[in-house]
Amino acid sequence: MQKILIFFLVILFPFVSFSQYWEVGLFGGTSFYKGDLTPQIIDFNEIHHAEGAIVRYNVNQWFTVKGNAYYGEVSGNDANAKAYDTKVRNLSFKSTLLDIGVQSEINIRGFQAGHPRYNNTPYLFFGLSIFRFNPKSEYNGTWYELQPMGTEGQGTTKYNDREKYALTQVSIPMGFGWKYALNRYWNVGMEFGTRATFTDYLDDVSKTYVEDDVLRSNHGEIAVLLANRSGEYLDEYESFTSEDNRGNPTKLDWYYFAGITISYNILPNACYRF
Predict the structure, then answer these.
(1) What is the dihedral of CA 187, 71, 77, 249, to 10 degrees?
(2) Residue 78: beta bridge partners?
């Protein structure tokens, strides 16, 4: 019986040898997006400052649960494109972004503050987030919220199958990072994370144009001006119908957070203790 007990203690030692503990900290870095108004994965003209807070619960040295609240901005502009047809489309947007999520972190080398062997590790993470966005575009010096405009016929009588998109939605965060325990009290790290969304309207661009008179009768003249801005580039107005593509509905939008973290271990005496 004693040998069996010793055997199980040896097997379970990596999972019970360190006490569970919490971290609280801050995030600072950048935010950006990939969608219809970005010609490549990262448009360096449209990277913005982001900040936030994190909370970690270290279950053991291999597994951590993290909560985050990140705030940033995303934007896109056809003026940054190289393709002529995209430049002619001449659409642009910006949106603040609030992301609140929970992720599981897998510590590849193992991580334990205060331990000489497990004081740093690369890690992978995945989880679930709720995010809030609100795309806007500027016209004649005024910024307009695009979702109420129904720029692709949402909320109109003719295109009643196109519902207005929700401004609060769910995303799937995933990514990788590296963290280092300076001592039993403080940790620093770097992280790159992407969020897969279930919407193609982060930038208010997805399907086709709709007829001017449909937008005008349902949402007013400003909706017409914001939906079709090619005339500002060509110096002559060109009308479109629902047969003309405005975006690519086959690809959903993504957004990203990348930056550094600094965190403090609550009850640091719990770190590295059998």
Answers:
(1) 100
(2) none
